[in-house]
Amino acid sequence: MKPDVLVAVPLRPAQMNALEENYTLHRLDLAADPDALLVQAGPVCRAMVVNGHYHVDKPLLDRLPALELVACSSAGYEPMDLPEMTRRGIKLTNTSDALVEDVANMAILLMLAARRQFVQADAYVRSGDWGRQGMFPLTASTHAKRTGIVGLGNIGRAIATRCTALGHQIGYFGRSRKPVDYAFYDDLTALADWADILIVATPGGPDTEGLISAQVIKALGPQGTLVSVARGSVTDEAALIAALRDGRLASAGLDVYLNEPNPDPALTALPNAVFYPHHASGTVETRDRMAQLALDNIAAFYAGRPLLTPVN
């Protein structure tokens, strides 16, 4: 008999086909009566497929007594009760390594677009204002700047490599010093004060909530640029809005927001910010790799092999 797998969020088509070939699927994502499906699936499903937006909490876990593995096809897992999963002996896997390059590229794209006012310049050409009003105003350079990176994990390091190619000096803030040549700051405000550009690439969660505070934004200053590919909770969004509105921060490039998918209109109305819809990893190639990694973790679990990307 094929092993049973609960699908709360589907994978990419090719990986879903592989799941269907090798496992008996219980499609919670398609269920007309989710409660009835959980009654059927709970006693038999040892593995479950989710993404980083799906809530795996105690009430759900109570209905899945056989569950041993949650295979997440995203890097983040903030909505999941990891302590409760760990207490029950349930393993969580994610896909953080699969999305490093595209997320790092997006951080650079947002930085370039924010400082060079790319969106505004595009609109200037499309509207005919170039012909009517003459040359577009001068913008801020992206060459030979001082870039502070908040969180020097795999994504942070990939961002640093790209910034180095642009002639940037690199400083970083994190929980510990890394074996790298970049300048380490144990004080985030001091890093922001030094930097022209601050790029945030930390995980979300309670440990980093509000880390980019009003004080940090003030230290970055009226010529500074804030870029975030982290989580919306990491930045004090009200402080960011006020600083951008009042000219105490020059620009921002954001892929993440406190209220998704409906960011604060006061933020999205600002002309000196560039936005992307929490989609930094959203390329066909990367999403295929992420789905495959989730599939490979399930295969390893049922084969009794070590998990590829365990979180707990």
The CATH fourth-level homologous superfamily of the largest domain: NAD(P)-binding Rossmann-like Domain
Portion of residues within helices: 25-40%
The number of distinct β-strands equals 12
Question: How many domain modules?
Answer: 2
Question: How is the CATH topology of the largest domain named?
Answer: Rossmann fold
- Terminal Cα span: 29 Å
Spans of at least 5 consecutive residues whose pLDDT stays below 50 are: none
Query: How many individual helices?
Result: 13
Give the overall shape, derived from the CA principal axes: elongated
Query: How would you classify the helix and strand content by structural class?
Result: alpha/beta
Radius of gyration: 22 Å
Instruction: Write the H/E string, N to C.
Output: EHEHEHEHEHHHEHEEHEHEHEHEH
CATH architecture classification of the largest domain: 3-Layer(aba) Sandwich
**Strands ordered across the widest β-sheet:** 8-7-6-9-10-11-12
**Mind describing the biggest β-sheet?**
7 strands, parallel
Beta strand %: 15-25%
Q: Quick one: CATH class of the largest domain?
A: Alpha Beta
User: What does the average pLDDT come to?
Assistant: 98
